[in-house]
Amino acid sequence: MKSENKPTLYWFLLKYKDWNFYIASTSKGLVFVGSQKKPFGELSEWAKKRFQGSPLVEDEEKLEPYAVEIIEYLEGKRQTFTVPFDYNGTVFQLAVWNALCEIPYGQTRTYSDIANYINKPAAVRAVGAAIGANPVLITVPCHRVVGKNGALTGYRGGLEMKTKLLDMERQGSSSNK
C-alpha cells in the first residue's frame, strides 16, 4: 500500500477549564474525540487500527472549527454539532451512531431504545458494541445511553466523564426552559 493513499490525521490536544482530551480529523471531517485526561497513546493506538499508515500531524489551526464547537458545547452554549464527520464504521455502526445523534440534548435512551430505533430490537448487545466503538465522544453523544434501569453503564471516556457530561446537559436543558 502506498502512503499517498492514506489520509493525513490532524490532531490537537483540546484543553478547556478542567477538560483535557485529544481530537483528530482528516481533511473530510472529525474522526476522533478522545477520553478525558487520557494520554496521546489513546489516539495513536486507535489511529493504528483505523487509519493504518496514515501520518499523524499536530495542527491546531485545522482543528479549530471542531474545537470551537466542542468548547461551545462544554460551555452549555451548543446542543448540536454542525461540523462534518468522517466516520469509519460498518453499516450497522453508522446506523447506531446516527441514532445517537437523534437523542435530544439533556435526555437519555437505553440500549434497547436504540436497538428499536434502528429496527433491530434483538440486537441490544450489538448496539452496545457499536456504541463502544464510537470514535467521536461528545459529538456523537453515546454518553446519553444508559442501562435499562437508568444506571450508568460503560463509556470509553470513563464513567466520571459520562456523569459530568450528563450532569452538564441536565443543568443546561433545565436552564433553557
TrEMBL record:
<keyword id="KW-0808">Transferase</keyword>
<dbReference type="InterPro" id="IPR036388">
    <property type="entry name" value="WH-like_DNA-bd_sf"/>
</dbReference>
<protein>
    <recommendedName>
        <fullName>methylated-DNA--[protein]-cysteine S-methyltransferase</fullName>
        <ecNumber>2.1.1.63</ecNumber>
    </recommendedName>
</protein>
<feature type="domain" description="Methylated-DNA-[protein]-cysteine S-methyltransferase DNA binding">
    <location>
        <begin position="92"/>
        <end position="170"/>
    </location>
</feature>
<dbReference type="InterPro" id="IPR014048">
    <property type="entry name" value="MethylDNA_cys_MeTrfase_DNA-bd"/>
</dbReference>
<dbReference type="GO" id="GO:0006281">
    <property type="term" value="P:DNA repair"/>
</dbReference>
<comment type="similarity">
    <text>Belongs to the MGMT family.</text>
</comment>
<keyword id="KW-0227">DNA damage</keyword>
<dbReference type="InterPro" id="IPR036217">
    <property type="entry name" value="MethylDNA_cys_MeTrfase_DNAb"/>
</dbReference>
<dbReference type="Pfam" id="PF02870">
    <property type="entry name" value="Methyltransf_1N"/>
</dbReference>
<dbReference type="InterPro" id="IPR008332">
    <property type="entry name" value="MethylG_MeTrfase_N"/>
</dbReference>
<dbReference type="GO" id="GO:0003908">
    <property type="term" value="F:methylated-DNA-[protein]-cysteine S-methyltransferase activity"/>
</dbReference>
<feature type="domain" description="Methylguanine DNA methyltransferase ribonuclease-like">
    <location>
        <begin position="9"/>
        <end position="87"/>
    </location>
</feature>
<keyword id="KW-0489">Methyltransferase</keyword>
<dbReference type="Pfam" id="PF01035">
    <property type="entry name" value="DNA_binding_1"/>
</dbReference>
<dbReference type="GO" id="GO:0032259">
    <property type="term" value="P:methylation"/>
</dbReference>
<dbReference type="InterPro" id="IPR001497">
    <property type="entry name" value="MethylDNA_cys_MeTrfase_AS"/>
</dbReference>
<keyword id="KW-0234">DNA repair</keyword>
<dbReference type="InterPro" id="IPR036631">
    <property type="entry name" value="MGMT_N_sf"/>
</dbReference>
